[in-house]
Specification:
Oligomer: single chain
Strand content: under 5%
Distance between the termini: 45 Å
Largest sheet: none
Shape: globular
CATH superfamily: PhyR, sigma-like (SL) domain
CATH class: Mainly Alpha
Radius of gyration: 16 Å
CATH architecture: Up-down Bundle
Number of strands: 0
Length: 150
Amino acid sequence: MDPALSEFDSFVRTRTPALLRSAYLLTGDQHLAEDLVQSALARAHRSWNRLHDSGNAEAYTRKIMYHLQVSWWRRRRVPESMTGELPEPRGGDSASDHASQTTLRLTLRAALARLSAKQRAVLVLRFFEDRSEAEAAELLGVTVGTVKNR
């Protein structure tokens, strides 16, 4: 097997869960999130020979993902509504913990649904992925001032 292809397979196996979480927060739908990640990975694969040496494969893939989401949103131009549940790590929580997590999840989902795709992308990058304003601006292809405004 080609070493670059083997590295891409390893990248996909290890980074897909994190990419799916971010994609879900961007789309609000598990199936759309899977489509978004698959499309972003397909585009990253086309550039893999250049990417695998750069060390920026994940950042590049996320940038593709955010740009695809904005493009999809522009084409749809219909109100979005969050569906499904946020993916959560497996664990044994008590009933009261589960109830409070459910309430928090519903509140978060409602708040995210009110945002535009661009605003949601900034929120996910800054606060869920803990990116700096400069990193978020670079990934989204906008200025730092635009990130601050969104």
